[in-house]
Write a structure and sequence with these properties.
The chain is mainly alpha-helical. It contains 28 helices and eight strands. The strands form three sheets. It has a three-stranded antiparallel sheet with strand order 2-4-3. The longest helix is centred in the N-terminal third of the chain and has 32 residues. Keywords: Coiled coil.
């Protein structure tokens, strides 16, 4: 069966590549990654022609086979039927539906009839997986799964990330992105791609020369099947949007590709992040498909272990740990590790080559170290896995807005320590100005505003100039007037009733985000029922960004009917005033 799978996968590869290019333009909402297993099992169990699809094939593949082989039933339930619908449409529009196939309309109608049953089958699998997890919560999905390390990751000391300007400069030196650019430039405009191989042998030879990859010696495999490194860079070029579909069976360089390395830091970082998942291309590719699958996720497994070692780990230790992990996660793991050793000398060689080429690791004196760019990437991957990790900008690179954003989420003592470390690198007068300017960027963010006022207020008289400047900013004027008055500054404006009401609305905005009990408690802190009613009769005039939602929340949350009615009247007046 292994040989048949490998042969079918090789046969399908060019077709699926064409589909991916087609889908980016014609079915952007479909998950093309879900089509591969459907097309593979259709070829293996339903038809010896990848282009011949009968209505009965859909039931055979989707209901009989997919429940046995699908890896992520949740994702399949959400996206597999739409993806297959897009794939069949692609086959039809590109004249790839072979003789003997059902008409496209009949195939799509059959898909509609099967969809509910397929979703039910996937949901049953999800329930079974949940039940299995109850018995073995430590079970991992594979080598590249971060979840088993969640507790260790959450206990890591604070990770400090470098500023975007430094990271962007590092992306511009990334060899693999430069190779992807060079390949895209070679592809040029409107290059036709083939059905059996994206490029013919002559084109492959040219492309390899452009990339500096030697042409392999002629063997049992075709040239196209002997150059996985070329296709990895081709796929990276697609991930980076350096290559784009240009009509049927045609691919072209994107207009901006030749400008790489991009001048703007944001553009450079965005491009690098778009290709981050190419780390999976670093996993060893072996002659045996099942052995390749057994080592899938090896690159991610190495990254998470280096991260847990706070960014640096001996290569020998990594090799030992990962060999043991491969044997543990898959019955073929030890055999696959041996095959990779025979093919690469060290199974980690392709992993480290790709990661180094993408600017994420450096290997020196048999020590594997995450670069600042690599640390940024791994933190991003951990965040994608919904695992908590304490990662913050480095103190010297932390902007005022960074400080305010992180400080609002930290315990008080830790936030104070962060503020003190930040202040040691800055002149107090300028720090005060920076904090207030950051708070003014979004007048809807009351928590940031309160945080900034507290920090600047702790600086005392050195912040007077910054407070005076803040008087011209409506969202900060109430704080500026209040602090200037507290400092006894001559000719400072006296805080008005509207200023006081703004401060109250900021406080209510923050408490509303904490939940109903905290919100009601903050209303009680304002005063008794008559005081609240009196406040509601005037506070509707304040042009606060959260006024209406707060009045609506008061009407629903406060237990006293008199307050509820006053809040509804105030809400009506506020809306009428706006109209």
């Amino acid at each position: 069966m292994t040989d048949r799978i490998e042969a079918a996968a090789a046969e399908l590869r060019p077709l699926l590549q064409n589909f991916i290019l087609w889908a980016r333009e014609n079915a952007p909402g479909s998950d093309s990654n879900l089509v591969g297993s459907v097309a593979l099992w259709h070829r293996l169990i339903a038809s010896d022609d990848v282009g011949r699809w009968r209505q009965s094939d859909l039931r055979t593949v989707l209901l009989d086979r997919m429940p046995q082989v699908v890896e992520d039933p949740d994702a399949a339930a959400d996206g597999m039927v739409p993806a297959v619908r897009a794939y069949l449409t692609f086959l039809s529009e590109s004249d790839r539906l072979a003789k003997g196939s059902a008409p496209l309309g009949d195939l799509l109608a059959e898909l509609d009839r099967l969809e509910d049953d397929f979703v039910d089958a996937m949901e049953d699998l999800v329930v079974e997986e949940d039940e299995d997890d109850e018995y073995d919560e430590e079970e991992s999905e594979g080598l590249g799964d971060f979840e088993p390390f969640a507790d260790e990751l959450s206990e890591l000391p604070t990770i400090r990330l470098r500023p975007d300007s430094e990271l962007a400069e590092a992306t511009r030196r990334t060899p693999l992105i430069s190779k992807a650019r060079d390949l895209a430039i070679w592809v040029g405009s409107e290059r036709r791609v083939g059905e059996t191989s994206l490029l013919d042998d002559a084109e492959i030879t040219e492309a390899l020369a452009v990339l500096g990859i030697p042409v392999p010696e002629k063997g049992d495999k075709s040239l196209a099947d002997s150059v996985p490194a070329l296709w990895n860079i081709w796929n990276l070029a697609i991930d980076l949007d350096f290559l784009q579909p240009e009509g049927e069976d045609t691919v072209s360089i994107d207009a901006d590709t030749a400008e790489w390395p991009f001048e703007e830091d944001d553009d450079a970082l965005d491009a690098w992040m778009a290709g981050l998942h190419s780390i999976d291309y670093g996993d060893p590719e072996l002659a045996d498909e099942e052995a390749t699958i057994a080592l899938s996720g090896l690159t991610r497994a190495l990254l998470v272990r280096v991260l847990l070692a706070t960014g640096s780990k001996p290569l020998a230790e990594l090799r030992t740990e990962l060999a043991e992990a491969a044997a543990e996660y898959d019955d073929l793991g030890a055999e696959a590790w041996a095959a990779a050793t025979a093919q690469y000398g060290d199974p980690l060689n392709p992993v480290l080559d790709w990661l180094a080429g993408y600017g994420m690791v450096e290997v020196e004196h048999d020590q594997v170290r995450l670069t600042p760019l690599g640390m940024e990437g791994v933190v991003h991957l951990v965040d994608e896995a919904d695992i908590e990790l304490d990662a913050r900008p480095a103190i010297d690179a932390m902007t005022a807005l960074d400080l305010l954003s992180f400080g609002s989420e930290l315990p008080e003592e830790e936030a104070d320590a962060e503020f003190e470390a930040w202040m040691e690198l800055r002149a107090p007068e300028q720090a005060a100005r920076d904090l207030l300017e950051a708070a003014a960027e979004d007048d809807a963010n009351a928590l940031i505003r309160v945080q900034a006022a507290s920090m600047v207020g702790s600086l005392g008289e050195v912040a007077v100039t910054a407070w005076r400047e803040a008087l011209d900013e409506p969202s900060l004027r109430p704080y500026a007037a209040t602090h200037l008055a507290q400092l006894g500054v001559e000719d400072a404006p006296t805080p008005t009733q509207a200023d006081t009401h703004w401060l109250i609305l900021d406080m209510l905005t923050i408490s509303a985000g904490l939940g109903r009990p905290e919100f009601v408690s903050s209303l009680d802190d304002i005063g008794n029922v008559p005081n609240l009613v009196s406040l509601l009769e005037v506070i509707w005039k304040v042009p606060h960004p959260h006024l209406e939602e707060l009045l609506e929340a008061i009407g629903k949350a406060h237990p006293d009917k008199q307050v509820g009615k006053a809040a509804k009247r105030a809400l009506f007046k506020a809306r009428s005033g706006q109209n």
